[in-house]
Amino acid sequence: MKKRVSSIDVAALAGVSQSAVSRVFTQGASVSAEMRDKVQRAARELGYRPNKLARSLIEGRTRIIGLILTDLDNPFYADLLEEVSDALRARGFGLMVQLPRKVEELEAAVAEFHSYRVMGILSLSAMFSGELDTACRELGIPAVMLCTGREQVPISQVVTDNRGAGAEIAQYLLEGGHQRIAHLSGKSPRLSTYERAIGFREGLRAGGAEIFAEESGGNTYETMVAATLKLFAGAERPDAVFASTDQMALAMMETLQNDLHLRVPEDVSIIGFDDVRAASWGNHALTTWRQPVQAIVAAGIDLLLRLREDPAQPPVSIVIKGKLIERGSARRPQHRQSGAA
Question: Which residues of 61-76 are buried (b: 16+ CB within 10 A; e: fewer)?
Fold first, then answer.
């Protein structure tokens, strides 16, 4: 078996001390350019890779961020995971992911993160509770929720302006001349989809209208199809629908076109929320509200690091505005027909 190359081997080849090798591979450590070049050349020649986890366990700290994710079925969270991974890598952090499906597994995930001494936790899960946030604080682990939250639960979070977005979508549909505007709502306990629904109702009422019909899309393709069929079961059908997520909107479009033989947007306009990659595909061309994922992730990481430096800081809520992306699934208001957003 080939002997594993150690920092002692690198030091011997480079003609420096072992502590010098350690400084070169420690981010932020003071080392001259000449020393860094000498050590890195020796490391490349020997094929040396520092054991970052072992070093972090010895030092009692890591550059690893824990991520909690519970909804991989929704393509938005897969996109969000990729953005988090890229952003952390660019800052020199590692990422450890846990995929709990229930509260008990979520608690176990936090315990596992603690055993690996993560610097902090980013949660994309609405299951993350105030009790868990308190437990994390007691363990010295800051936590921040991204793109989701819990009603009346004081947890640091970075989200888009869901309520304002819902209101703007309602206004857009009303300005497009729609009169029977329905809503395919999101699942509980996500504060994000709840606030979209509240804002949507407020926007309709501001324009002198009420929701024509509403159904919950649930969290599976089958429940989304069933909810769509129920919305359109009556003799008088909606002429526009706001779906709380792109996942729901795309399932609805497929059901309307294939099962009910309705045209989008000629017979019914559909607007989604998130702007997942599939939304821009030619056969979908979904008009949707784009969450500013890059800005949300950057702000979330910054906030997490601030909480790490100041654990006594009270929970912080940051709201970042998104924008409507006009494509082909919704009839445009007359004054917006000259071009896309």
Answer: ebebbbbbbbbeebbb
pLDDT tens-place string over residues 287-340: 999 999 999 999 999 999 999 888 888 888 999 999 999 999 999 998 877 654
Token digits of residue 175: 């300005």
Q: Which of 297, 304, 272, 267 is nearest to 285 (CA)?
A: 272
Question: Where does the chain hold its CATH 3.40.50.2300 domain(s)?
Answer: 64-160+292-322, 162-291+324-336
Helix (H, G, I), strand (E, B) or coil at 67: strand
Assign domain 64-160+292-322 to its CATH superfamily.
Response regulator (3.40.50.2300)
> Tokens 């899960």 label which residue?
125
Instruction: Report the amino acid identity of residue 97.
Output: V
C-alpha span between 165 and 138 (Å, rounded): 36
* Three-state DSSP class for residue 157: strand
pLDDT in tens, 40-62: 899 888 888 776 555 555 555 67
Contact present, 120 and 141 (Cβ < 8 Å): yes
Strands 181-185, 143-146: pairing kind: unpaired
Fold exhibited by the domain 162-291+324-336 = Rossmann fold (3.40.50)
The 10 Å Cβ neighbour count of residue 129 is 18
